[in-house]
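Q: My collaborator sent me two sequences in one message, no labels, and asked for predicted structures for both. Can we handle them in order? The first one she listed is below.
A: Yes, handling them in the order given. First sequence, followed by its structure tokens:
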Amino acid sequence: MTMAPYKRDIVVPANGKSTTTTTTTTTSTTATTSSTTTGFICYPECQNNGTCIQTNTCLCATDFTGSSCEIQSGGLCSDDNTTNIAPIFLVTFGSGSATFSSATPANFSFTTTYQQAFTIPIEDGYFAFTNAIPNVNTVWHTGALDHTPNDIDGYMFLANADPNPGQFYRGTVNNLCIGERYEFSAYLTNLVGPFGLAKPSVIFQIRTSTSDNTLIGQLDTGEIPEYSTMTWTNHVTIDFRFSFLRANITRFWYSSEV
């Protein structure tokens, strides 16, 4: 998956519709309290040399925002177009000679409701980091590799869809810039061959990490097709501008359900 652009290799075998769960995090910043006096009263007081221009309304100095100018955004952002620039967040789950990686979601800064498998079988509701599709049953593309080009023994995220709704990936990207354009994308594949089984689908959501978890963008992949050879496809591309005054952090939810 990519954020401008940020990429992951995710395998979703057989079966699945999608749902999402939302949780709340809060974003805090350290700010210096100082303000310009104009005769109006702002509560809380305008910070970082902000000016109280009318009751409870702050005019913020350059590079600061928020109702009391408590959020600093300067130094993080460029005025240039963000199209085709280097990724600001990229994870390909590492590489290694062992079929199953011993790494855990914490190593890649995400959480999941799925349980991790470190060997076969990989049951419903389990996931694994593997450098080749394991020989679990005759309908999987046994031996197929991850998406990343020239990635010797590269691991992929393999999730076996749970009959119950589950969130198989949730991560956070920090230091996003107000007003900038971002692109989110992900490569997915169905590891089941053309055997007429139920096809998976995934819902991707991008939300702010403010208390209301404002939804910025959402996309449903629809049914991920099966092929005679395992085929990676960029199923998701969401363009959005981050224009919320009270955060420069956003979060993603990727949910799977049989």
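Q: And the one she listed second?
A: Here it is, processed independently of the first:
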Amino acid sequence: MSAATSIPRIPWGRAERCVETTLLELVAAVSDECESEAEVVATVLHLLGSGRARLCGSFRNASLRDLVRD
């Protein structure tokens, strides 16, 4: 198998379970696995936008736009 061989994508099913967490807990957990701040931000936004994670606590009603505002 050569290095140029593409690996087929495995389709993701619908999230059966949504993790409810605070923004701080989510960022801390993702930070443990990511190598850069940009990767943390992208992953957190993906988890929230896809519905795989839902915020509770102070940011429970915040939109994604509110979370990334400067």
